[in-house]
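Hello,

Our lab assistant flagged a job as stuck in the queue for most of the afternoon. It eventually completed. Since we weren't sure the result was trustworthy after the delay, we are filing this so someone can double-check. Below is the sequence as submitted and the structure that was eventually returned. Let us know if re-running is recommended.
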Amino acid sequence: MIKIFAIEPEIMADPVNFDLLFRDFGSERGRWIAELPSKWRKKVIMLIYKSPAGTIPPVKRNAMADKIRKYNDRFQSVEVSWDNAKDWLENAIDHHRRNIIDAVISKVAVPEQDSVLGVEECQSDSADCDYSVKLNRRVERKPEELFDAIATATQYCTELHLVDQYFECDGVNKASYVKFLELLFEQQRNRSAPVRDIFFHLKKPDSYDESRVRANYSAILQSILKTGERIILKFWEEHPGGDKIHDRYLYTERVMIDSRYGWGEGSETGHRTTLTLLDRAAAEEIRASYGGNANNSCPFPHVLGADCTIIISSSNN
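-- returned structure --
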């Protein structure tokens, strides 16, 4: 659902290529530009201002540079290592071989390298082209399949939330929800700056007993947590006249993914769900409904009671 592309700096210093490519990037479009090397943006801006006199009008030059500086949602820092003895393309191909990026966009295609796209290939609407992305993805409702579909979105996040009222501590599919959470934590443990808190937003049961709910969820979640990790359960009530708590989401500070049938397995094998990458406006509205990060505010249309946040941590904490 999200792809990361390394783009040769000289490409984006050309106004025609810039206009062709830059509009296609951003979280809601399913593409991020890899900052390869780490000072990629500075390099492109330098090339823009060093372009021969008369090739780029001053107003256009400044507009291009401003977009590169300010549109942070279109970029992702991914560099693992950079070998100064190699040229840009060789380094980018190395990052692709390590599965850090999905493809390389170069001034010209390299026939013997399927991962390297020429700029002209980025105009293709073909689903078979490596430049294409699926904003909607239909997957089997297994933890591994769900995680594989969203893994890039969570690989670089700084906060992580799940919304699904059907994650019940005594539900028949509770094990699949626990496995999905376990896969998310395993991914984070391999990062230099891991997310240690995962927020899970649920609908508050009609009969809510805080101590009983805490004990029941601790019994199924505590074993997957390591020292310093927490699952923060937030139980929401429906605001009179507001939206019903029914939809299922995974969201970070940058990405909002709608899972039509949730993050757990179905009652029978073969059940599938459609994952949809939502646009910025929808993402901001939904995020506001659940109070952003860890605060206990009461945003419309949902209400969070003072006693309705339960923190599950490792038994070693």
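-- support follow-up --
The delay was a queue issue, not a problem with the job. The result is valid. The chain is about 30% helix and 20% strand. Residues 141 and 271 are 6 Å apart (CA to CA).
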